[in-house]
Amino acid sequence: MDKAIPLENKTEFDESVPRVSSLKRFRRVLLSRKLVVFGLIIIVTSIIAAVFSPLLAPYDPYAFSLKDKFLSPSLSHPLGTDALGRDVLSRLIYGTRTSLIVGIGVVGIASLVGMSLGLVAAYFGGKVYTMIMRFIDTLMTLPMLMLALAIASLLGGGLRNVVVALSIAMIPAYARMMCGQALSVKENDYVRAAEAEGASNIRIMAQHIAPNCFPPLIVMMTMQLGHAILSEAALSFLGIGVAPPAAAWGAMVNDGYKYLHTTPYLSFFPGIAIMLLVFAFNMVGDGLRDALDPRLRGTL
Amino acid sequence: MSVLMEVKNLKTYFNTEAGLVKAVDGVSYHINENETIGIVGESGCGKSVTQLSTIQLIATPPGRIVEGGVFFEGRDILKLEKNGQEMRSIRGGKISVIFQEPMTSLNPVMTIGRQLTEAIELHLKMTKEDAKKRAIELLDLVGIPSAKQRLSDFPHQFSGGMRQRVMIALGLSCNPRIIIADEPTTALDVTTQAQLLKLMQDVVREFKASLVIVTHNLGVVARYVERIYVMYAGRIIESGSCKDIFAHPRHPYTMGLLRAVPRLNEPKGKKLVPIVGLPPNLLNMPDTCAFLPRCPYAVEKCRQIPWPELRTLENGVHQTACHLDF
Amino acid sequence: MKTYILRRLIQSAVVVILVTIGVFLIMRMLPGDPVLLYVGMDDVNAATTPEEIAALRAEFGLDEPLLKQYLDWIKGAVEGDLGYSFLLETDVADEIKNAMPKTLLLGFVAFSISLLIGIPFGIIAAVRRGTWIDSLVTVLANIGITAPIFWVGIMLIHVFGVKLGWLPTQGYTSVFDDSLLGIKKLIMPIICLTVFPLSGIARQTRSAMLEVTKQDYIRTAWSKGLTEFAINMRHAFRNSVIPVITLAGLQIRAIFGGQVLIETVFNIPGMGRLAVEGLQNQDYAIVQGVILLIALLVTLTNLLIDISYGFIDPRIRYS
């Protein structure tokens, strides 16, 4: 299903293959790869864990119990307890909330702002294009993590500020992608036709250009969910993020690092959780790319 | 006239998402020395795949040459290892291909000169300088002005027609015995088409090579080819000399193709008749004649017998895959 | 080509100016008054009068109008004076001079390894598509781009430092002072910094190669009777280079970002840790300097990459 047809006369070949209904094809391609299904399962599980944290967590994730500190994994505490005697599994379950909120929030804001900037730059061209793109270039001169770190420090920690900081840091990727897409879509005859009919700029952008730019951007958003979660983990590892008692996976890795010599699993489990969730989003993104449009294969 | 290459019962199938596509399903034909033949058919009939199969240029997967033989210089070249040394010396050296997309068939980051000399050095064992000289001669031959300067140019600096000339030069570069021209002029305007076909005919004669013109346009090849094979749904359904095909077509599909071509010698006001319906879907082909659903002459018997094999007609050369006599 | 380079030079210059303005403004907006911090640390018991604070402000040039402060800062920066850190009580330029070689060494080695391993493996995976080696490369690369590198670092420390005791886990020693120890201390940080770019480059090379091998001109190359190796290297790879280089450019940036984490985990006194500590301590002179230099480095590499496009792709060169 995933094979190229390099030496075949493409036009001839395409016509001899019947059109399979696109929704059916979408579903089949998406679900045909085990890793994509695996990713979907992880994502659904995480969402359930985040929504029903209080029901699923065996313990209160904030309850200290100094006599229970550093318990090894056991039946009553499957992943052990941390330096304050809090149940690691419960904290991991609550941590899905932080990760998903940050992931969704960041991708939502960054894609909205970034795509709008890219669309406007591509549509109007000229000075507008230059101004927006130089601004984007400027944001891109700093490593994403460093930029987010600086902005989060400026705003002063906390979940909301982390979301804002990461959003700003991720805007350039969307703006550039959207700009590239819109520049090529803009050349299509139906856009020219809409212009000739005297449609307003906003209408042309929203109705004729934007919808035709989406497929690669949807793939990118899925992948960036993983990236945002990874970056949030990095920020909370550095001590910038949700306020201390709340659970964040990156901060849990850092907490564990202090006791690496005695209880290495304190760092181990949250790291695995981060990897699984990020991996899941990447795999689903890969699958979406192949399912949405086979021509996009290999372009992201 | 001796036979230069003979293709016997060639079958090439493709595994696709939707199922097995029998793109070429039992095709046999031959090319004589110093001959030009035409392979004619609609898009998707398997004519290009047939040609690429003969020099094992089918990507596997998804494609697979299932059966058949291609006899060239006394041996079955389908039995050679696909990318082995022997097959490679035939590919480009003895049998070359001129592809149909001049805009995309040349490497965009390599100079025209290098793309020519690369093959010349390989097959003719020439030094770099000699290969370069030959490349200049070839570009001259195909009518590219100031060939020497243009050697260091890149494909995007050439127009479509010029690029197709470069492709022709490439096809000729190693003195091949057979040149396969796959829709060589489709992407070009009519004047350029005629020029390039004439050019090909001339150079092929000069080089004493044989030419296979693959096209969907009967009108294009009429003046240049000696024999014609008409393909439909992965098979040859009629073959014969150019005269046989144009004067007495014996298969309803060929008749339809001819009625769809405007001719100068016909009375004014005669209407062109399109062939109704769509080319067949190569998945789940019925056993009966593939042209049946579109055939204006279909009779009850057509629905009862399997797709007829080619049968030879009175003159001993003309063949048709229709059981009816016209 | 000349106009192309010139245009890119101007664009880079504009970006550099925008970066300096941005950095300057953001750092002025950061919370915390450096003078109060300075006073509070230096002289806890002495009641500092507002007059004294004002005098200090004037001394540090903080009472000037913003534009003047900015221009002074730029003028200083050009002359190699990046300001004074109240907290570290040193010149920022000196701090950075100490930190920069460590960061550049780590980054350069990690980047080189990523290219040297990532590109060949990407090519092999594409050429041997669907085989076990393709699956292995793809799976490893997919895991590599998801691994939190600070966690990878901690796990490496646990295994090779704590359990096996093979490698030192903290700090930095110059290879000129003690070659063996210096190299040993570099191994784990470099592995961590390599994981992400290596995986990304391998993935990008693979997909670019797969895309290119579908093109008509590759079919032409096959029809010439070239060897598979010649087709893959001379024709396919040269056409796949641009997306790979584009990604490699982004990876340079990502490596600098990763150093913020890795220098923290391994306690290496480089630019990354300098930036983190500067932000934590609201020592904005340091942060300003570090960010400025990194932005300049990134802009420079971007410029070099864009110019390299012109050499690789004639369509860009002649446009």
Which descriptors would you attach to this protein?
heterotrimer; A: 300 residues; mainly alpha; MetI-like fold; 12 helices; elongated; disordered C terminus; B: alpha/beta; Rossmann fold; eight-stranded mixed beta sheet; 11 helices; globular
Structural class of chain C: mainly alpha
Query: Could you please say which CATH topology of the domain at 3-34 and 45-84 and 215-320 in chain B applies here?
Result: Rossmann fold
Largest interface: A-C, 53 and 57 residues
Estimated helix fraction of chain C: over 70%
Q: Please tell me the CATH architecture of the domain at 3-34 and 45-84 and 215-320 in chain B by its name.
A: 3-Layer(aba) Sandwich
**H/E element sequence of chain C:** HHHHEEHHHHHHHHH
What does the largest sheet of chain C look like?
2 strands, antiparallel
Largest beta sheet: strand ordering of chain C: 1-2
Low-confidence stretches of chain C: none
Q: What is the fourth-level CATH superfamily of the domain at 3-34 and 45-84 and 215-320 in chain B? A: P-loop containing nucleotide triphosphate hydrolases
Question: Brief overview, please?
Answer:
The complex is a heterotrimer of chains A (300), B (326) and C (319). Chain B has 326 residues and is an alpha/beta fold. Chain B has helices spanning 47-54, 85-90, 112-124, 128-141, 147-150, 160-172, 190-207, 218-221, 242-247, 252-259, 300-304, and strands at 3-16, 19-32, 36-40, 63-72, 75-76, 95-98, 178-182, 210-215, 227-232, 235-241, 311-312, 319-320.
